[in-house]
Amino acid sequence: MVPPAIWLFFSFIFGAVIGSFLNVCICRMPEDKSVVSPPSHCPRCAYQIRWYDNIPLLSYLLLGGRCRGCGRRISPQYPLVELLNALLSLALFYRFGPSLTFLALLVFCSALVVVTFIDIEHQIIPDEISLSGIPIGFLCSFFLPWHSWWSSLLGILLGGGSLLLVAYGYQRLTGKDGMGGGDIKLLAMIGAFLGWKSIPFVIFASSLVGSVIGVAMMALQKKDSKLAIPFGPYLAFGAVLYIFYGRQLIQWYLHLGAGGRG
């Protein structure tokens, strides 16, 4: 049953408001700054942003993408994060309705948004998100219907363990570190929230998309295989894809394989 339009609208606004806070996390976490204080301000002129200049999406448009204090351009990352999180909230509410599942997965997807933008810019995944997310995801498994606590526990072990083995094997073969510890902890967090069945799908989807984009980037930038490409955003993409289409894609693949054998 499709939720009423007014509820869908409010879910969009709710996600955009959370997205505004996510921008604070994205800007401050890499510098180990508090996400609570000081209040939001322009990073160039320190102008303290008033509430009417901090309305998600709308204020950016009304200000013409410029700071009221110094007139310099505001990064388009701010409305992009707000819009992305608003769309995720809308999609989750459309799928799960007003439920604890919706709230838990919105928290999870919001964390993935922060991880994605920080990893792209700084090539780090904050432990405050990944390590905190592991017990939170595990606790959710006791109250929410999509998988059991033992599936969550196996997801943590399989998610973290699989990438740990890959990283160890790569290091032994090449003598170089090919994967950061942040990716390992992030996949463990994904396993905690989505269960062990999600891990093969997430690894496959993220590796496939990451390989295609990575090769394209190296070709465009004329760089060799030493180009550092953050893997966190691809893991996040694979996790979100699993939430909405994972089971359907797995069933389609199994049906395709069965048809090929027939």
Could you explain the architecture of this structure?
There is one protein chain. This protein is mostly helical. It folds into two domains: 1-98, no CATH class; 99-262, no CATH class. Helices cover 69% and strands 0% of the residues. It contains nine helices and no strands. α1 packs parallel to α4 (100-122) and α6 (149-174) runs antiparallel to α7. It is globular and about 60 Å long. It starts with a helix and ends with a helix. The mean pLDDT is 88.
Could you list some keywords that capture this structure?
mainly alpha; 262 residues; 2 domains; globular; single chain
Low-confidence stretches: none
| Class by alpha and beta content | mainly alpha
Compute the average pLDDT. Answer: 88
Please describe the biggest sheet, giving its number of strands, its sense, and whether it closes into a barrel.
Answer: none
Give the end-to-end Cα distance, rounded to a whole number of Å: 37 Å
The radius of gyration is 20 Å
Helix and strand string, N-terminal first?
HHHHHHHHH
Number of domains: 2
Helix tally equals: 9
Detail the topology: elements first, then pairings:
Blueprint (H helix, E strand, L loop, with lengths): L4 H24 L29 H5 L14 H20 L3 H23 L4 H14 L8 H26 L6 H14 L3 H24 L10 H30 L1
Helix pairs in contact: 1-3, 1-4, 3-4, 4-5, 4-9, 5-6, 5-7, 6-7, 7-9, 8-9
How would you concisely characterize the structure shown here?
This protein is mainly alpha-helical.
